[in-house]
Amino acid sequence: MTVQPTYAWCFSHGSLHTFRADGIWCNATWIDLGTNSEEAALRVKSAHFGDARFLDDLNPDARTAVLNQANARDDAEFAARPWCDGFRYSARCGSILRHAPHAEGEQPAWHDEN
User: 3-class secondary structure for the chain?
Assistant: First the structure.
């Protein structure tokens, strides 16, 4: 069985990313475009975000939506780890984040340490 790649637009790098079965290699601000081809991904990106390449190119509502989606993905990835030291570095905002203790399976509430 062939695993289809994931196509995502990265608003930090300003380019289309292709994630294959070997994993997701970018931890910046990207969104899954939900397509199975590069051409379709670029059409979806254009339809939803126009010519915007970077976060600063988006209107405030679109920027907030992109950041919320990226943050939710980050939180889910960190919550799924079998260990948690309570800290992580956020490349997106350039700061160290800390979270309060939480029950297993709950999403942590991150707080900026700067």
Answer: CCCCCEEEEECCCCEEEEEECCECCCCCCEEECCCCCHHHHHHHHHHHHCCCCCHHHCCHHHHHHHHHHHHHHHHHHHHCCCCCCCEEEECCCCEEEEECCCCCCCCCCEEECC
Domain ranges of the chain: 6-83
- Contact between 8 and 16 (Cβ < 8 Å): yes
Residue-level pLDDT at 72? 80
Q: Look at residue 83 in the predicted model and tell me its pLDDT.
A: 47
CB 82 within 8 A of CB 41: no
Distance (Å, whole) CA 38 – CA 44 = 10
